[in-house]
Amino acid sequence: PSRPEAAVTIHCPCGPVTAFVPWDGQRSGSRVRFHSVPAFAAAADVTVDVPGHGKVVVDIGYGGAFYAFLSAERLGLDVCSSKTRDLVDAASAVTEAVKRQFKLHHPDNEELAFLYGTILTDGKDAFSDEPTTNICVFADAQVDRSPTGSGVTARIALQYHKGLIQLNQSRTFRSSSTGSLFTGKAVKEAKCGDYNAVVVEVSGEAFYTGTATFVVEEEDPLKYGFSVK
Ligand SMILES: O=C(O)[C@H]1NCC[C@@H]1O
Fold first, then answer.
1. CA of 162 to the centre of ligand 1 (A)
2. Which of 143, 178, 218, 229 is deepest in the core (most CB within 10 A)?
3. How far is the CA of 217 from the centre of ligand 1 (A)?
């Protein structure tokens, strides 16, 4: 690996994500950053009918996965102090409503055109040096422990699209579930199909949790993988 920082390309469902890891020749540092695929605002100010909450306005952003974004306040909740159960239930209801009422499109691959979750925020999207807090409820109503790499990427793309931040203006994002922090900034403009997009850099702390060695046995009939259609 190269010093003082090694680039590591991770092959994700959305495409290659490049992580940059500090490396002094012996040890890696814990402050890491990554650049994901071009991120874009898929739709701003979409009104959906959410059972139990009525008409709700959301933004939809793509940062390697699609998320709906809205301030928790619009659902009568506070992202910092409401019960996690209430935040999860409300976010899940928004996800279901957006899935039913809004058709997503991904220019490169329609298999990526699905809503992965809803991110409830404190509404602080205008640029500020203060952290902004969010909670990401994704997949089967799981709560992310971090501010969400793909979610922060999508949120920055939406903020950039709305003229709320400039290139290379860093913002700090806080997870309401654990308090962990990411910083994010748009580093350059890009395109994804016809969408005006940005490459976003997200940084945070990463630690080793284990190592694994994979082997292939010649007799393994599935050694080259399989695909179920
Ligand atoms: O940070 C991320 O992008 C991942 N964590 C939860 C949702 C995504 O899978």
1. 24
2. 143
3. 32
- Bridge pairing between strands 31-35 and 15-22: antiparallel
Helix residue spans in the chain (DSSP H):
84-101, 149-161
How far away, in angstroms, is 218 Cα from ligand 1 center? 34
End-to-end CA distance of the chain: 38
Residues 6 or more apart whose Cβ sits within 8 Å of residue 228: none
With b for 16 or more beta-carbon neighbours within 10 A and e for fewer, the 171-206 pattern comes to bbbbbbbeeebbbbbbeeebebeebebbbbbbbbee
**Residue 153 Cα: closest atom of ligand 1:** 3
Whether ligand 1 lies within 6 angstroms of the CB of 148 is answered as yes
- Give 52-80 pLDDT, tens digit per residue: 999 999 999 999 999 999 999 999 999 99
**In terms of Cα–Cα distance, which of 146, 201, 154 is closest to 174?**
146
Q: Do the interacting molecules here have an ipTM over 0.90?
A: yes
For a substitution probing ligand 1, which of 12, 67, 144, 202 has the most ligand atoms within 8 Å of its CB?
Answer: 144
Alpha-carbon distances of 4 from 17, 55, 91, 137, rounded to whole Å = 19, 51, 41, 36
